[in-house]
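Q: Could you write out the predicted structure for this multi-component system? I'm mainly interested in how the pieces pack against one another.
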Amino acid sequence: MAAGPMKMRAALGAGYTDVRVLMSHPMETGQRKTPDGKLVELHFIQNVTVKVNGKTVVESQISQAISRNPVFSFRVKGGAKGDKIEVAWLDNKGETNSTEATIA
Amino acid sequence: MRAVACSALIALTLAPQSASAQKSQYEEYQRMTAASAPVELFELAGEAAWKKRQGPKNASLEQCDLGQGAGVLKGAYAGLPRYFADADRVMDLETRLLHCMMTLQGRSRDEATKRVFGSADQASEMEVLSAYVAGQSHGMPMRPGKDHPKEKAAYLLGQKLFFHRAGPWDFSCASCHGDEGKRIRMSDLPVLYKPQHVQPLMATWPAYRVSTSKIVTLQWRMNDCYRQMRMPEPVFGSDTTVALLTFMTQTAEGVQYRGPAIKR
Amino acid sequence: MHNRRRNLLQTAGIVAAALAAGLLKPIAALAATWNKEAFSAKNPGDALKSLGAASAEASSAIVIEAPHIAENGAVVPVEITSNIAGTTSIAVLIDKNPFPLAGKFDFMEGALPFVKLNLKMSESSDVRAVVMAGGRNYVATKEIKVTIGGCGG
């Protein structure tokens, strides 16, 4: 199953770069029922990693209590032209997606 | 089942709104969620749908004329609804998109509207296209067509429909949206024939609805309002829906479009 | 409000296709841990114990920015900044959720101790931010009321 689109936006702040990342993911709690009464199984992102120039700067563990189609903002120090920022996620089914961008 | 429970609530809670302090508390929530909305993902999906070759003619929608010329997206949504000579009728965004699907791509109405309103698991093609096209008018003043005789007629029909009571409950749009100070549960009900109420709404649809995790469009909203009034659901892109949307958009004229947005 | 026009990046969005083509090392190949015990805890105390943060002192140097009242519990935006020197992680808990622990964010050199995220809240509750810095734990809480608006959907 192909993961949906993922998008990252970065904005320069005072001495840091604000990284906002939008992810397509149902983040199912395992509590929701379909119209015919069946439980939709647990399916959610468990890990989100932020890297700058290949080096991990943020490692996150998250739960199904994060909203569907998660949107996260992180802040990485500095932010020079040419810096490559990558955000990747891994869910409880082993599915992954990632996006990267270079500061122009 | 949900609708029945809600109907009981309508009867109980169509009550005067309490302190205006309540409204300002939600503004904070709305502002913060707007900055964290996953709406852009749907715009991306819409862009892909716009460019995808489909139908018997194996064509994309890229030559669709939304009112500013074939393929011109910037500002197109802000000029809708409007009269289109090639169809000889007033059309809103979704009606026009359907028209292009049928004429440019050769698709049948049935096929193109088979799943016109999507779900949380998957937005419909029409929903993501609406988000994409609307986003191209972000920041622009809304100026729907109003000079053409058919645009004027659509406005008047919409106005008439707005106040027309019918159905088993003898409801009209005005039953909920006709007086100041009403609410359903904790949501304020805007008075849709007053510019100051309808402007912020027309400025933000289509939208991502957090309670259902899906993109909602104005054609869906018209359909769902009729359903909630226990009237037959209007045909997608019907004169009824276009007239109501024309009435409301013309009433909101001049407001800066700031969608697609996020909603409860 | 939308900063959508401030695009300072040349985006080269890598989608799952690129992943499938072997152009990107899957994150699964890297060490990705998920503290099942902490995330399965049914009350904040047990979750914090599993994180090794059972005793935390209140601190005003942790700033939680969130709406006082949310129109819907499906998306509650919360922004947490830690001004405590040497912060290495921030854990976010929603006390009244069935499983209170919502996330744990570890910050390495190169990142600021800051996170903004959208939470699902089942009811009005305290949201708790637990900061680990210099081997000690600190906490701040904020109450968020959750209502249900509109006609159900």
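A: Regarding packing and overall arrangement: Confidence is low (pLDDT under 50) at residues 1-30 of chain C.
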